[in-house]
């Protein structure tokens, strides 16, 4: 562990963790991250090489992948496609269970965000939903089917 502090703030212990995450049957890693590479949720489908349940937790910040530091870049910018798994280098700060659970609440899944980023739908932050072809998804996780207009 190492500590970090700014002027006037107490020292915070930061634990460096290394974990190998394998792609699941659907080809996903099973983690949701935010724009700062902070883990927001770990799905049941997340496969950890050594099967430790606490290997990656909400609140962990991914600082590198397979020896490559992120240095301000997004995780997807440095991951090479097609690998069966990745070694994630994490910074872990102490958080209580309530704080970790709060990180996982009210988020959209990576699949939905990737669909929007790839141009398959649109996100409306004001109304808190993602619209994908044939369905609308709220950020609370409920999926509402929409009738596809036949032309």
From TrEMBL:
Residues 18-81 form the PDZ domain. It comes from the Eukaryota. This is PDZ domain-containing protein.
């Amino acid at each position: 562990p190492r500590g970090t502090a700014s002027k006037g703030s107490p020292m915070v212990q930061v634990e460096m963790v290394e974990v190998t995450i394998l792609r699941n049957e659907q080809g996903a890693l099973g983690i949701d991250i935010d724009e700062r590479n902070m883990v927001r949720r770990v799905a049941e489908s997340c496969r950890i090489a050594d099967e430790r349940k606490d290997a990656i937790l909400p609140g962990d910040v991914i600082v590198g992948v397979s020896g490559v530091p992120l240095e301000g870049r997004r995780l997807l910018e440095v991951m090479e496609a097609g690998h069966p798994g990745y070694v994630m280098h994490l910074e872990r700060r102490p958080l209580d269970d309530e704080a970790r659970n709060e990180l996982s609440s009210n988020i959209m899944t990576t699949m939905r965000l990737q669909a929007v980023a790839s141009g398959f739908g649109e996100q409306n932050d004001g109304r808190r939903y993602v619209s994908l072809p044939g369905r609308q998804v709220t950020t609370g996780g409920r999926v509402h089917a929409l009738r596809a207009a036949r032309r």
